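Predict structure. Input: Riboflavin synthase, 220 residues.
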Amino acid sequence: MFTGIIEAVGRIQKITPKGTDIALTVDSGKLDLSDVKLGDSIATNGVCLTVVELTGNGYVADLSTETLKRTAFVHYQAGQKVNLEKAMLPTTRFGGHMVSGHVDGLATVVSREQTGRAIEFWLEASASLAKYLAEKGSVTIDGISLTINAVDGARFKLTIVPHTALETTIEDLSVGKQVNLEVDVIARYLERLMMGDRAAQQTGEGGLTMAKLAESGFLR
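Output follows.
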């Protein structure tokens, strides 16, 4: 579990193909790895990765085909900057929101505008994720805990204050860029709970969804 408060910006040193998977070598920059051991989790651009090797100035983690399919990592190259956060401790100050590091999909930057000292972004998520986006709700973009300031269909607005721009990779985003998106975990579980006993039914198409329940008349 993470909070979405970025601790350091690292850089991908190497991407090593492993069949259909890859091994990622990350220079962790100023991130303190003194308390990190093999098997620990580090959110890397919002993706919960397991440390399989410590290199002295960073770590190595494996990325599965599923991770590559769901995230922007499939487009990354050596030299790419990444947001880093170690898994939270029971004593960690909870400055962001509940972040699992399990990316739901991608969002695309559709506009960027400087407003005073802040940067305003509009991003567009897939239609299937739009129902989880709420004004003044939380969302995780490339591992950063952010507040949604407006919603228009599958599009949502983020206002980035100078400190966040300085301490993360978000200032590097431009129109057309894709980012890792994780919706609020509470909304995801709430959807499943609302299905009740029907959640146990198998459809052969990935299970029941709110859209399928609405079509069936269950939610009327």
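The radius of gyration is 18 Å.
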